[in-house]
Each structure stands twice: as C-alpha cells, then as structure tokens.
C-alpha cells in the first residue's frame, strides 16, 4: 500500500514535483530572466545610435560610437542566444522527467485503491486524468516559470527605460498595464470556472470512449452500437457547448484589452509628438518609445494568448486532483506485519459483510478450512462464492468478525504480503 504525501491544490501539486529538480529549473529560470535584458535593451541601443547620427560631432567620433553601440548589441544578442540554447537543452532533460514523476505518482496512488473503487469509477475517466495531468502540469510550469518571468522582467526593464526617457511615458504605460491586468484578473474567475467545467466534460467524454472499446464485445453481442453512438453524441455535444462558452468568455476579455491597447498607443504617440514639438524628446526617442510600446503590447498580448491555455490546464489539473481527494478505504495498520504462512489453515470467525449498497451477503459466518485441504464452493449465482474469495484477499474489509490464516488476522498484516501468499485464477479466464 503506497504511503504518499498528497498535495491538494494546483500550485502545491505543480511545485511538489518541481522541487525534485529544483536546481535545474532554477538555472532555466535565471537564463530566461536574462532574455528579458536583451529584449528591452535592443531599442535602447538603437536610440543611442540614432542620436549619434544626429549629433554635431565629427564623423570619426560618430563612427566610433556606432561601432561601440553595435558591438555591444551584437555581444548581448550572442550571449542571450547561447543562454537560451542552454535553457533548451536543460528543458529537454528536465521536463520529460517531470512528467514521468507525476505519472508515476498518480499511478502509484490510484492502484492502491480498493476493488470497489474501480467498480464504481470509469476506468477510461481514470486513465484520461492520469495521462492528461502530467502534460497539463508541464505546460503550466513552462508558462509561469519560464515565459511569465522572462516577459515580466522585460516589461519591468522597458518601463524603467521609458521612465528614464520621460517620466510621463512610464506613467502612461503603468496606468495601461494596471488597467489591463486588473480587467484580466476580474474576468479570470469566470474564465476559470468555464474551463474547469470543460475539462470535466473532456475527461468524461474520453472515459466513455475508452469504456465502449474496452467492452466492445458486449456492444456487439447486444447490438448496442447505435445506443452507444447516441450516448457518445450527447457527451460530445456537452463538451462542445462548454468549450464554446469557455472560448467566448476569453474573447470578451480580449475585446476589452484591445480597446485599452488602442487608447494606450494613441496617448503615448500624442505625448511623443507633443514632446518633439516642444523640444523635450530626441530623435532617438522616436525609435525607442514606439519600439518599447509595441514590444510591451506584443509581450502582453502573448500572455493574453496563454490565458486560455492556463485556464484549460488548471482545469485539467483540478480534474486530475479529484483522483487524490478520494481516500483509501482499506489501509494497512501502522504496525502491520508480514504474513507468515506455515500450514495454511484458514478460518472465517463470526464474519458479517454487507455491500455498500446495503445488500447483505454474510451474517455470522463460521468456516474452517484445514491446512492442505482441497474444497469447492457450490451455490447459486450471487450466493457469495466470489465475495468469500475477495474477503480472503482483503479486497473488502469485513463488517464484523475476523478472517485468520494460521491464526494471523489478515487485517493485521500487509495487503501485499497477504496477496503474495494466495494464488488466484480469475473465473473469466
């Protein structure tokens, strides 16, 4: 029986597996943050080169300045390209292992559930969540750890450069950014709820597909192909409706953000032209300010494009976390020991058992099977023959009484050691 720490929130779950490779991911974070320096300083060097061309200095001094500025720009670009290639190599090593750690964790946890759990939950739904959750965590980690941090750094440096040029440029940019982020966060809750509902619909749809193909023999024998197709169509229509609603919520957000971007550019360009008219800005500022402004818009719009992905992946992770919110019904005791079989005597002592639905199977059952005896269980279908074997394997816990092997209560030994000592040939073979 696996004993695992269970992170129950999206952030904790993603971070729990990140810590296993924290050094590697920290290096990637640092390298991506360095990318923001290149992205923001490129317009700055361009501005200096243009101002040099319009200066009153000699051509030799201007040429020397241009070569120095161009050399710094080329060196910065080269270093950042090398850094990003290094980050790519580290990502190629770390992210597959990150997915594998999550997949192994989920598989290990779910396989420790009881027999009843797998009878009452769709196998396809479980498989869909286990296969989809690692990829969702990877996408979310990549967006926040690598892209959001690097773009956040670039935005910060860009606003600082705008402030150095003229404080009003920075103020205009900050006001636009605050309004943009504020509207996005206010809209986020509705988008998140819609995406979570869509993720649940996708998991249910995938579960139905897997279940039909796993039971294809029954579908063929009972000529239920059209019935299953109708059920599939109903589930698919539900997924389509939820997906359309989720995307429409995101599009409404984008419309508001587009209007804000238009007002931002108009305000910034108006002040830039006014500054030129009154001699407050240099020719190079006409390169710096628009380049930084459009760069800011591009980076923020790229982040906007990640919003549907973020909501979708958070929804997928939350759907997967439902697997971890169902506790084990049968657990080994803290002091459970290994089963030691000598002669192999089996005793059912005053055993009572009812199924969760309330159906009574055994009441005060006494049964003794001496060691090295061959016996057969005979009875009508549903009389409890298979249930008796499952109780012996501790696939169910008895409601009262005890089952003992060589005078050892099976509730006091580990489930693994118990099942290692019992050979079973399933009746459907």
Question: Any descriptors?
Answer:
2 domains; transmembrane; transmembrane helix; single chain; Rossmann fold; 429 residues; ATPase-coupled lipid transmembrane transporter activity; Type_1_exporter; 4-stranded antiparallel beta sheet; ABC transporter transmembrane region fold; 70% helix; elongated; alpha+beta; ABC_transporter-like_ATP-bd; 4 strands
For the secondary structure, the number of strands is: 4
Q: Overall pLDDT, averaged? A: 85
Specify the CATH class of the largest domain.
Mainly Alpha
Cα(first) to Cα(last) distance is 27 Å
Give a verbal description of the structure:
The model has no long low-confidence stretch (mean pLDDT 85). This protein has two domains: 10-321, ABC transporter type 1, transmembrane domain (ABC transporter transmembrane region fold); 346-420, Rossmann fold, CATH 3.40.50. The relative contact order is 0.11. The chain is of the alpha+beta class and 429 residues long. The longest helix has 53 residues, at 225-277. The chain has helices spanning 10-18, 22-53, 59-110, 115-120, 123-165, 167-214, 216-221, 225-277, 285-321, 385-392, 415-420, and strands spanning 346-354, 360-369, 400-405, 408-409. It has a four-stranded antiparallel β-sheet, with helices on one face. The chain contains eleven helices and four strands. The chain is elongated. Residues 39-312 form the ABC transmembrane type-1 domain.
């Amino acid at each position: 029986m696996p004993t695992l720490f269970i992170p129950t929130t999206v952030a904790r779950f993603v971070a729990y597996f990140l810590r296993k490779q924290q050094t590697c991911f920290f290096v990637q974070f640092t390298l991506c943050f360095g990318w923001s320096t290149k992205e923001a300083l490129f317009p700055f060097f361009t501005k200096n080169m243009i101002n040099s061309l319009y200066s009153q200095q000699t051509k030799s001094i201007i040429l020397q300045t241009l070569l120095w500025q161009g050399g710094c720009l080329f060196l910065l670009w080269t270093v950042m390209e090398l850094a990003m290639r290094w980050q790519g190599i580290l990502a190629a090593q770390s992210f597959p292992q990150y997915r594998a750690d999550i997949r192994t964790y989920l598989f290990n946890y779910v396989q420790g559930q009881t027999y009843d759990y797998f009878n009452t939950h769709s196998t396809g739904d479980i498989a869909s969540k286990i296969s989809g959750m690692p990829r969702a965590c990877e996408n979310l980690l990549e967006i926040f750890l690598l892209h959001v941090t690097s773009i956040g750094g670039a935005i910060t440096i860009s606003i600082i450069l705008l402030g150095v040029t003229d404080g009003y440029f920075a103020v205009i940019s900050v006001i636009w950014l605050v309004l943009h982020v504020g509207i996005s966060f206010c809209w986020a809750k509705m988008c998140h709820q819609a995406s979570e509902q869509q993720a649940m619909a996708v998991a249910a749809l995938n579960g139905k597909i897997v279940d039909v193909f796993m039971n294809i023999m029954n579908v063929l024998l009972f000529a239920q192909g059209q019935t299953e197709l109708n059920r599939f169509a109903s589930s698919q229509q539900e997924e389509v409706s939820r997906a359309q609603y989720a995307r429409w919520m995101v599009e409404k957000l984008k419309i508001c953000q587009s209007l804000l971007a238009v007002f931002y550019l108009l305000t910034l360009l108006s002040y830039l032209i006014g500054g030129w008219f009154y001699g407050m800005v240099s020719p190079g500022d006409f390169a710096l300010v628009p380049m930084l402004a459009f760069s800011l818009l591009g980076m923020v719009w790229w982040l906007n494009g990640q919003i549907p992905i973020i909501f979708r992946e958070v929804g997928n992770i939350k759907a997967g976390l439902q697997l971890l919110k169902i506790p084990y019904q049968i657990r080994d005791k803290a002091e459970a020991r290994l089963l030691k079989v000598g002669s192999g005597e089996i005793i059912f002592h005053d055993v009572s058992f009812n199924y969760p639905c309330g159906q009574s199977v055994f009441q005060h059952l006494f049964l003794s099977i001496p060691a090295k005896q061959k016996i057969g269980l005979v009875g009508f279908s549903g009389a409890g023959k298979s249930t008796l074997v499952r109780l012996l394997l501790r696939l169910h816990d008895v409601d009262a009484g005890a089952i003992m092997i060589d005078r050892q209560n099976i509730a006091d030994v580990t489930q693994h050691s118990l099942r290692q000592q019992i050979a079973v040939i399933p009746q459907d073979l």
